[in-house]
Amino acid sequence: MSIRSNFARLLKRQVSLLKVQKKSSHSVAVIGAPFSKGQKRRGVEHGPAAIRSAGLIERLSSLGCSIHDIGDLHFAQVPNDELYNSIVKYPRTVGLASKLLAEEVSKAVGAGHTCVTLGGDHSLAFGSITGHAQHCPDLCVIWVDAHADINTPLTTPSGNLHGQPVSFLLRELQDKVPPIPGFSWAKPCLSTSDIVYIGLRDLDPAEQFILKNYNIPYFSMRHIDCMGIKKVMEKAFEALLGRRERPIHLSFDIDAFDPSLAPATGTPVIGGLTYREGIYITEEIYNTGMLSALDLVEVNPLLGATSEEVKATASLAVDVVASCFGQAREGSHTRPDLIMDVLPTPSTSYDSDNEEQVRI
Ligand SMILES: [Mn+2]
Question: What residues bind Mn(2+), as annotated (predicted)?
């Protein structure tokens, strides 16, 4: 490697270290989004409460974040919300909820916070990303999920809108997305080169078609098996941040993890991320210093077989969020009263020699 590229690398590292230091005193807005109408299983509306009960706010505070807890939003169910095209469920209710969330996320990001949205189902990512993009139009998205959530209202096999938000977000797909009730306010804010998927392992036929034919970068579980999570993250950052630095929106579906780690979720798929792979993703995102908003979705406390399963899933969600804000496996104590700058030295005048002799 040439001296010049060594120097450039060193400089880049210094810059990113500075950013990490700057970001260590994060101002974080937490928004609870107890919404479940993007899918059919009851319980995901209790996700924010479960994640809070698992200690999210305390954990973020212990990392030195200043927390602006906006509380849980209230989502109204639109009456007579009939199916679109005989299949798409609750379009008006999902559209209205997404609009409300978009406004809240936009306010939070505009006020200078890094915004954490606790779902709720993944349909809400349409709102959170749209709101984020109002302040950061050059943002990019890292979508960590077992599913691509990129069906259009015309290709969805289930009719659930939590499997469709990305199709609404992408400009290139707009000639394939019909205007559905509840979404007249919505405008696409992403291009296919602004998003990367990680963790995919359950794609519908149209989703597979879209990813391939629109050249959307994705790293399935097979890619992770082949090249390892380190290489996957390098390639993901190269695709999104290679030419310029830009704010990152992380949209993290807990079902990206293997169901043995995150059982309390609506659409588990075997063969998912290990704990170490999942946390490596978020540690690396933290290390960029560019995280600007995050969704943590699809924790469903009613779907754990036992209370231990529910607790494990919610605790995992807390670890994911905390590692986005600097929780590190090699230690991450930033609180002034916990930082150790000198080790205690034993006293030289130890006066219990007699005791020692007795013991010998
Ligand atoms: Mn999802």
Answer: 122, 145, 147, 149, 253, 255
